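Postdoc handover notes: sequence design on the structure in folder B. Input tokens:
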């Protein structure tokens, strides 16, 4: 199993190009199931979750062609689908496989998708996806660990999400575009990834209004067509590099990013003494003119501070002067990185959904274990500021969502290698 060896203490300097957003690309790839025509995509990050989604589509006999060189293109055509099933072997490695449920049942009238099961960061049920499909007329059975959904044609419905769910909103949006009549989604997720998916669907001929707000209206159509689309930049990867620049006292220019998706992160880092300046189109420069200072943070749905940036922010808090209270409101068990940081010398007390970080503390290198995708990013960041050598184990988690992170960090001057 791969690990990273990091020699900490290097100031990061230079330019890093941000990749396409994994969490936008995944539902967009699933949306290719909604048409028999070709969907041509660009800015698809080369990360493991994307390979898993491509495998899943190929398992259904979709034709998927990916090209590694810029513009990181991918073409998907789902003309002949032989079986509308997402097997456990693929779903267990990536929860987002559940995004095939909505489009499959909408276009083919039948889907069988393995339940994702537990996950390191909490229970993560899909009850809201299932309830919404039932309201749209699907007959759902849960048997042998699989969700089976059947519907001759889904019907439009009023869907109120009890809780804001990103993939739930995306799944039901994809189901609604081919349903009969109007679907209104309320308390919908407003994440930029939802809006990007809606933009693709509109190009495919869907009738959607209000994506990016809490109420989305969809008028179902009979058929969708092929199109081409460029995926938005990854705001979490960008946020991770902003933190990398800040904690190493470096100066990094991020290119190909979307500053307006990073408002909450930029505001919080600025409150900690980080200077972040917009330069050219899609560019942000980060540096720290003085000392880092503590600030409290609470994770929220977009446009609030993303839960996917919470772990990386914790690394920054260990290097900031004062006490930072970090409150996690989205997932119930998302502080596993804290105990690893404590092993490196951080002062962090976790109490339920709150973590209190006292800084600054020097971190010392040791062997640490990554428990999920964003936790592993935070531990790599910790390794960058630790003295002597840090080994980050189980980096397959980071490979799920960061494209060539060690190469990008090395280009900025970090001493990091994959073992
Ligand atoms: C997506 C992102 C993930 C991010 C998360 C929150 C993708 C592929 N993943 O995950 O990176 O951390 O949004 O921003 O885009 N819930 C239910 N029932 C449901 C669905 C969700 O109770 O049917 C709960 C979850 O347990 C969680 C909360 O709602 O507590 C939010 O989860 P959700 O937005 O669905 O997260 P994902 O879409 O899985």
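Designed sequence:
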């Amino acid at each position: 199993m791969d690990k990273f060896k990091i020699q900490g203490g290097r100031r990061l300097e230079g330019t890093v190009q941000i990749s396409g957003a994994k969490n936008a690309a995944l539902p967009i790839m699933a949306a290719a199931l909604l048409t028999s025509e070709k969907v041509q995509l660009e800015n698809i990050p080369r990360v493991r979750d994307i390979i898993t989604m491509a495998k899943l589509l190929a398992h259904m006999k979709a034709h998927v062609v990916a090209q590694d060189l810029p513009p990181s293109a991918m073409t998907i055509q789902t003309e002949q689908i032989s079986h509308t099933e997402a097997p456990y072997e693929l779903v267990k490695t990536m929860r987002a496989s559940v995004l095939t449920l909505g489009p499959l049942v909408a276009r083919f009238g039948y889907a069988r998708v393995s339940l994702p099961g537990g996950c390191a960061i909490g229970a993560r049920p899909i009850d809201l996806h299932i309830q919404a499909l039932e309201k749209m007329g699907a007959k759902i059975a849960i048997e042998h660990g699989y969700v089976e959904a059947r519907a001759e044609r889904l019907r439009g419905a009023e869907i109120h999400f009890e809780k804001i769910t990103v993939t739930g909103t995306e799944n039901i949006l994809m189901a609604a575009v081919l349903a009969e009549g109007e679907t209104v989604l309320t308390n919908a997720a407003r994440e930029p990834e939802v809006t990007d998916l809606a933009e693709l669907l509109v190009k495919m001929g869907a009738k959607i209004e209000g994506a990016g707000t809490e109420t989305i209206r969809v008028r179902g159509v009979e058929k969708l067509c092929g199109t081409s689309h460029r995926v938005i930049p990854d705001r979490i990867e960008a946020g991770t590099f902003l933190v990398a620049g800040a904690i190493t006292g470096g100066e990094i220019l991020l290119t190909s990013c979307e500053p307006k998706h990073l408002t909450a992160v930029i505001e919080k880092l600025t409150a900690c003494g980080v200077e972040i300046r917009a330069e050219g189109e899609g560019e942000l420069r980060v540096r720290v003119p003085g000392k880092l200072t503590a600030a409290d943070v609470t994770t929220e749905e977009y446009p609030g501070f993303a839960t996917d940036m919470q772990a990386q922010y914790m690394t920054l808090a260990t290097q900031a002067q004062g006490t930072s209270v970090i409150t996690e409101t989205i997932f119930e068990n998302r502080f596993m990185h804290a105990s690893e940081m404590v092993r490196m010398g951080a002062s962090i007390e976790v109490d339920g959904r709150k973590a209190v970080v006292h800084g600054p503390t020097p971190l010392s290198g040791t062997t640490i274990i990554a428990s999920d995708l964003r936790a592993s990013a935070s531990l790599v960041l910790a390794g960058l500021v630790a003295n002597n050598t840090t080994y980050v184990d189980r980096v397959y988690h980071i490979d799920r969502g960061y494209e060539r992170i060690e190469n990008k960090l090395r280009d900025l001057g970090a001493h990091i290698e994959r073992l």
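Context for whoever picks this up: The chain has two domains: 3-18+233-418, 22-230. Don't rerun without checking with the PI first.
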